[in-house]
Amino acid sequence: xxxxxxxxxxxxxxxxxxxxxxxxxxxxxxxxxxxxxxxxxxxxxxxxxxxxxxxxxxxxxxxxxxxxxxxxxxxxxxxxxxxxxxxxxxxxxxxxxxxxxxxxxxxxxxxxxxxxxxxxxxxxxxxxxxxxxxxxxxxxxxxxxxxxxxxxxxxxxxxxxxxxxxxxxxxxxx
Length: 174
Known about the structure:
By secondary structure, the protein is α+β, with helices and mostly antiparallel strands. It has three helices and four strands. It has helices at residues 2-19, 47-58, 134-161, and strands at 37-41, 72-88, 94-109, 114-128. Helix 2 links the parallel strand 1 (37-41) and strand 2.
């Protein structure tokens, strides 16, 4: 009897989850089935390009090995990490920084039609600095940068989801 009740509860949970519109976050599903994407970066050691490739591949979007094999091309033009001083203490030393991670990227079709032209994604974080805790603050900055990179990648993939691949040509740099 307990087994039947468990199965019924399990099936109800699956039906409820499926009917509410919930789905795994991940790869964009607006690209036609069977289409592939090629990801390139002007930085040959780009962590962002590697991570986007991995996430898209895991999400079911084939990542092409060469641009010739791909239906869509994602180009990461520029990746930037900046650190700006926001506040100083009474001795003139930085006491707070603003960390900025940015990427400028474009998406086009294999035939050259521009779907997204030099869009920019930015992530900002504040980092309070204390010279008496340099080691721990350095580690905090490293962890914040890793978190910021993940959020930047998430924003880029969310932007890819919103591309209408069937829309007529127009300026799509928004």
